[in-house]
Amino acid sequence: MMQPQIILLKEGTDTSQGIPQLVSNITACQVVAEAIRTTLGPLGMDKLIVENNGKSTISNDGATILKLLDIVHPAAKTLVDISRSQDAEVGDGTTTVTLLAAEFLKQVKTFVEDGVHPRVIIRAYRRATQLAIEKIREIQVTIKKDDPKEWRQLLEKCASTALNSKLVAAYKDFFSPMIVDAVSMLGDLLPLNMIGIKKVSGGALSESKLVAGVAFKKTFSYAGFEMQPKKYSNPKIALLNVELELKSEKENAEIRLDNVADYQAIVDAEWSILYEKLQAICDSGAKVVLSKLPIGDVATQYFADRDMFCAGRVPQVDLKRTMKACGGSIQTSVQSLTEDVLGTCEEFDEEQVGGERFNFFRGCPQAKTCTLIIRGGTEQFMEETERSLHDAIMIVRRAIKNDSVVAGGGAIEMELSKHLRDYSRTIKGKQQMLIAAYAKALEIIPRQLCDNAGFDATNILNKLRQAHATGNIWCGVDINNEDVADNFKAYVWEPSLVKVNALTAASEAACLILSVDETIRNPRSSVDAPPGGMGRGRGRPR
Fold first, then answer.
1. Most Cβ neighbours (<10 Å): which of 15, 397, 432, 477?
2. Using CA atoms, how far apart are residues 182 and 213, in angstroms rounded to an integer?
3. In which region does residue 363 sit, left (phi positive, over 0), alpha (psi from -120 to 50) or beta (all else)?
4. Active site annotation includes 94
């Protein structure tokens, strides 16, 4: 008697499982790593990514590249996620984390093919990660905060190490103090959104500057703004979300009139409503009026006659930053402009920056804020500069919150590799091989630094292994002299949190991919929708 056939999954469902599926997922992750491997380090190359709409992006930030690559393979997407999480949590090390995860998988590929159970590998990897993090905690160097000069030096070194591998590496000595100044201007919580970054095309990169306060581009203005003063000391600032313009009736109202006097009264009413609003603003004592909505030509002339400055259509983000910095609150009506809802600053002025005019609010009493104005030749170049500065700002923030550093340039990875290799020799069973594989995987970072710089990686790695075996824990790749050097003395410093986060995220991603042994790909869910209508929450087939 024949067994009845049981159909469990919908027709057209594609399933692949077992060892071939695992190996296929590992290969997909290696392809992703291949795409960004050349961007690592000071001599890494950049990628030019052109999107469908023709927009081109030049970057060597791992998270940015992976975001733009539009990866569809479900397992490989995990690497995109960890690079994003590294970017959000630490800000730098996005390429490192992707390379490490792919290398962890590559090193165990042969074990998977030979039939070692993924759970055994996962257990070994989790143990190895735990040991590596304990080792980082043991050897990290804590910098004393009580010496302001030494503390500032540490922050500048961390910023310049982060900028080393970027497009703007040649200007790291110019930008590092600027970034430390910018982060130092913030409050205790170091809110990132209080650092504004504005880009002005034209001029050299070295013309970029840091403004201690809020700065934004002059908004669209009507005739009359030329007569307004452009400089005030200790002005009161009114922040509005009010339209100061004559408006035609927008509800399509219909009014039937039988004489001209009534018509004139309606026209006058519109004007008097506007003048009442303007008078209320003027009476409040505000000298600078900022509004999210348009300020029309009548209002502009009115303010100019009374020596007041106004700017309409101010972007929401700039208006909020001005509110936090200068105090006061954004008002949706002009009827209650009392002293406590007006902001103030020590100095307001309008200046020319390149081809643009900027409004500056300096000496803000409330929140501490600053604005970086980046200059540069092309749009792509300025965007990459912004991404680079963002990474460095994040690193300095992390260094302030966690005052422990380790040496970069592959030094910490080689020390962890040596530590794990030594540990693996003291245990027995499959764990020994797997922890040794994890140790070998860590060598990808110094190896890739050498490959990207055109050095002989095998030769330099042999020197590094020898140096770490003899107790030189901070020995790393010396990019400038094609040799090895003590990177701690060379001031190639990174917050230890960067490495802890990178190892944890890479290891978790590798374990996640190893624990998947089947992929079920559903066909389009709309195929069984009834023709001509909508089928139970499913859309029509496109």
1. 477
2. 10
3. left
4. yes
How many Å apart are CA 519 and CA 211, to the nearest integer?
A: 53
Rounded Cα distance, 95 and 444, in Å = 12
What pLDDT score does 542 carry? 41
Report helix angle 94-113 to 118-139, nearest 10: 140
Q: Tokens 């018509």 map to which residue? A: 263
Using DSSP, state whether 533 is helix, strand or coil: coil
Q: CA separation (Å) from 506 to 44, 85, 453, 511, 512?
A: 21, 11, 24, 9, 10
Considering the candidates 39, 57, 78, 95, report the single residue annotated as catalytic: 95
DSSP state of 30: H
Token pair in block for residue 294: 């348009």
Q: Given this model, what pLDDT does residue 7 score?
A: 58
**CB contact set of 514 (below 8 Å; sequence gap of 6+):** 22, 105, 108, 112, 118, 121, 122, 125
d(CA 420, CA 125): 11
Quote the CA–CA distance of 363 and 212 in Å, as a whole number.
7
Dihedrals phi, psi of 514, to nearest 5 degrees: -70, -25
Two tokens at 174? 């110019």
Catalytic residue among 87, 92, 318, 391: 391
Nearest CA among 383, 388, 448, 452 for reference residue 92: 388
Which of 57, 61, 98, 129 is catalytic? The answer is 61
Q: What is the pLDDT of residue 525?
A: 53
According to the model, what pLDDT value does residue 14 have?
Answer: 54
Residue segments in the chain with a per-residue pLDDT below the cut of 50: 526-542
Amino acid occupying residue 356: E
Phi–psi pair at 200, nearest 5 degrees: -125, 115
Helix (H) or strand (E) holding 154: helix 148-164
- Answer yes or no: 470 catalytic: no
CB 166 within 8 A of CB 384: yes
Please tell me the distance from the alpha carbon of residue 477 to that of residue 468, in angstroms, as a whole number: 12
Identify the active-site residue in 94, 98, 219, 504: 94
CB 74 within 8 A of CB 519: yes
Residue 358 to residues 227, 322, 335, 361, 444, Cα–Cα distance (Å): 17, 14, 30, 10, 47
Q: Angle at the Cα of 471 (from 470 to 473), degrees rounded to 5? A: 130
For CA atoms 117, 122, 123, 128, the dihedral sign is positive
How are beta strands 404-407 and 141-142 bridged, if at all? antiparallel
Q: Encoding tokens for residue 521?
A: 């790909």
Q: Is 61 a catalytic residue?
A: yes
Q: Chain-centre distance of CA 313, in angstroms?
A: 27
391 in active site: yes
Say which residues have a Cβ less than 8 Å from residue 167's Cβ, sequence separation at least 6.
Answer: 46, 58, 60, 381, 384, 385, 388
Contact 373/211 with Cβ under 8 angstroms?
A: yes
* DSSP type of residue 203: S
Polymer length in residues for the chain: 542
